[in-house]
Amino acid sequence: MKKDMKKVSIKTTIILFLFLGCLKGFSQTKNFIDQPYLETTSKVDSLVVPDRIYLSITIAEIDTKGKVSVEKLENMMEAKLQSLNIDVQKQLSLADMSSNFNRYFLRKTDVQKSKEYILLVYDAQTAGKAIQGLESIGIANVSLLKSEYSKIDELKNILRQQAVKKAKEQAEMMLMPLDQKVGKALFISDLNTSVYNNFQGKVSGVRMSMEADNYEPIPIDFEKIRVESAITIRFAILE
User: Fold this and answer.
1) Burial letters for 179-211: b for 16+ Cβ neighbours within 10 Å, e otherwise?
2) Residue 122 — left, alpha, or beta (φ > 0 → left; ψ -120 to 50 → alpha)?
3) Residue 43: how many CB atoms within 10 A of its CB?
4) Backbone torsion region of residue 93, taken as left when φ is above 0, otherwise alpha when ψ lies between -120 and 50, otherwise beta
5) Are 88 and 75 in contact, with CB atoms under 8 Å apart?
6) pTM of the model
């Protein structure tokens, strides 16, 4: 009998504890809702010049009609890039391991090899010089893959801070005619931080003329990357 009473007492205590917990949560929610507050949404954005540009380079014996081997083209490519002050050890890499074994099967007795590389450069002018330089030695299969901004995460955080500051300023301006003031933030929602990169394989302002012996790209960068941050904040209203 005593054991049954003890079990009932424990169950009652647990139920009471859960009930009080729910009641407390409801009370907090109700108190938050009952507080006078103002909700505002703000957006900020920034334009940045990409500082990491990736080029795809394919060297293939078929491009020289089999007259120049992949190995020789590879050596010529490295020499040309080094002449442009490009660190091939750090900035040039194979696209994948299988690139060493890519082949074009033209006829049973005619097998011609190819390799695909990824070249990283840091500005549009160097990209243009690399493309023109490779074309000058017979490597014309070069394309622009993508562009990036190396400090994108740092920029996102800065924009979030600016968005919060802008939201508070908006709230203060809205309450000013009412002779009321902005209190503490009751709720913050990071709606979205987006990166808009319209780079689609084109270099803005980098023009090449194979006829010109003294080629020099004009000093215009890639199209800028736009980063946008949007937040919503609810501020308490102070009388």
Assistant:
1) eeebbeeeeeeeeebeeebebeeebeebeeeee
2) alpha
3) 15
4) beta
5) no
6) 0.68
163: confidence class by pLDDT, cuts 50, 70, 90: very high
Cα 235 to Cα 36: distance, rounded to the nearest angstrom: 9
Range picked from 55-64, 107-116, 136-145, 153-162 for highest mean pLDDT: 153-162
Cβ-Cβ contacts under 8 Å for 102 (sequence gap 6 or more): 113, 114, 115, 116
Residue pair 124/221 in contact by the 8 Å Cβ criterion: yes
Element (H, E) at 87: none
Q: Are strands 142-148 and 181-196 parallel, antiparallel or unpaired?
A: unpaired
What CA–CA distance (Å, rounded) separates 76 from 62? 16
Q: Across the strands, what pairs with 148?
A: 52
% helix / strand / coil in the chain, to the nearest 5?
Answer: 40, 35, 25
Q: Which of 10, 37, 52 is nearest to 148 (CA)?
A: 52
Cα(231)–Cα(189) distance, integer angstroms: 6
- Say which DSSP state 181 is in: E
